[in-house]
Please model this.
Amino acid sequence: MALERGVTAQRPYAGGDILPSTAWHPEFDDVNNDGFVDLFVSKGNVDAQVDYAKHDPNNLLLGRSDGSFVERGEQAGINNDARSRGAVLADLNLDGLLDVVVVNRRVSVEVRRNVGTGTADSPAPLGHWLAITLSQPTPNTHAIGAKIDVRIGDHTMRREVTIGGGHASGDASWIHFGLGTARTAEV
Model:
C-alpha cells in the first residue's frame, strides 16, 4: 500500500543505492500549507551496518489530494550525506512556514528555514495556515493526548497533541495546520 501511495522511504531516493534505508524519526505535518499532511523522515546509516545504504538522504514526502505522496527532498535541499538522527518541524520565525531542525551524527545540527517558493531574502508564502496551542490546569498543562479537528468545507484535518517523537526528537507546542487557499476554518 505504501508504494501505491508513492511512499518510497524504505530505500534512498537519490544516488542509486538499492540497499535498505535506516530511518530514525518520521514526522507528519503540512510543510507546504496545502491542507494535506506531508512526511519528513530523518535518515542515516550506522557505521557497522554494511547491509544498509551509505548515501541515505532525509525524505520530504509531500502529500497530495488523492492520498499519495511525492518525494521532494532534493528540491528542498535536504538531500545531504549527513547521518541524521533526530528532527523537529517547527515554525521557528513565526512566518507560517514550518522549518526543520535536524540532529546529525558527528556533524553540527542543521536548521533549515522554509522560504516557500521564495528565497532567504524574500520568502514567499505557500498558502494560509493556522497554529493552535492548548493549555489546561495541572497536571497535564499542555493537554497532551488532546485531539484537534480543523474543517474546511468537507475536508477535516485531525492532529493529536503529543510530546517526544522518534530518536532524539520532539514536538513543538504549536499544532500547525495548512489551510491551502482557504482563509477561514472551523476548529
Residues 3-180 form one domain. The mean pLDDT is 87. The chain has one domain: 3-180. The radius of gyration is 17 Å.
